[in-house]
Amino acid sequence: MDSDSKPGFIERLTSLLLREPEDRQQLMQILHAAYERNLMDADALTIIEGALSASETRVTDVMIPRAQMDVIDVDDPLDEIVPVVIETAHSRFPVVDGDRDNILGILLAKDLLRIHTEENFDLRDWLRPAVFIPESKRLNVLLREFRVSRNHMAIVVNEYGGVAGLVTIEDVLEQIVGDIEDEYDFDEAHDNIRLDSTGRYRVKARTEIEDFNEAFSTTFSNEEFDTVGGLVLRQLGRVPKRNESLEIDGMRFQVLRADSRRLYTLLVDPPKPKPVSEDAPA
């Protein structure tokens, strides 16, 4: 048989799917079998799995909680709003009137470029309508609504009408396509700590404190948190931003990868050698 007569990807996958799965579990078994036969790659399988699970995932499972929302008060002066927008680096901000349950609308960061030309600034004139959705809404339904309305953010409310959090289209897409990897990712499960070409160490946030202590001869406690990510989050009291740095007990940590909810990878300076005492014997 020549190469032109070999069945293509679609034909092979179709023949596999002709087994007519009776439920979702069987469908996933077939898809995993297709992956094992090299009919699809790992990325395609991840996306299909994410798309299927989106219909079973509720907004409350992926939203940014109320306490972690970055909001702007409608009465804040412009010279206070701009630094907040620059520091948080978001493209959209809920605007409240004194209380997070009283959301007036959404401010687009790009509108600030035009607001600077306004002589009589009134933030209310620049607000876009806020979209409110229940906690129980499924992600596949929300994604369809985002596409139709061209909105990129929705405010999540609980059964009593109070604000529970917010969700963006990026949050939904991440659940489908998975975490977006970059040049700082490394996949080996056993390789949580790796020496960088600069002489520093790339450390996964999920690295256990015990393993970190063993690698760097440190004595961080694991009573309140189990991982290096937990150590950093506890020190800052929030999720850090990419490239943000901090020092903990003499060790410098720099954030290589993080999103609005999670910390993924850190760059750690090697511990400094302890100075030799002048009284120490030669």
UniProtKB/TrEMBL annotation:
Q: Which UniProt keywords apply?
A: CBS domain, Cobalt, Magnesium, Repeat, Transport
* Name under which the protein is recorded: Magnesium and cobalt efflux protein CorC
Q: What's the family? A: Belongs to the UPF0053 family.
InterPro entries referenced in this protein's UniProt entry, alphabetically? CBS_dom, CBS_dom_sf, CorC_N, FAD-bd_PCMH-like_sf, FAD-bd_PCMH_sub2, Ion_transp-like_CBS, Transptr-assoc_dom
Q: Which residues form the CBS domain?
A: 63-123, 126-183
| Source organism of the structure | Azonexus hydrophilus
Protein purpose: Plays a role in the transport of magnesium and cobalt ions.
Against SUPFAM superfamilies, the record matches this protein to: CBS-domain pair (SSF54631), FAD-binding/transporter-associated domain-like (SSF56176)
